[in-house]
Amino acid sequence: MAYTLIRHLEHRVRLQYKKLLLQQIRKTLLSVQASILHDKKTNKRYVLPSNVPLDAEKIYKLMDVSLKTSVYRIM
Hints:
The chain has helices spanning 2-16, 22-30, 54-62, and strands at 34-39, 44-49, 72-74. By secondary structure, it is of the alpha+beta class. The protein has one domain (2-74). A three-stranded antiparallel β-sheet has the order 1-2-3, with no helix packed on it.
């Protein structure tokens, strides 16, 4: 099942964006990170996303996954 999903992702990326090897897709998606900041005064938590590579943005977009690039609060 996992093999099929990986091949499907590779196929969609190749058709809708550009040809990327599975290792490149994996490395690109693993580079997407975020830090969680905790405000001790108000006891609120915020997410601070890192800079996202262009390839990762395109992959997220073609898979219809939202990608926030600005700070947002965790409920």
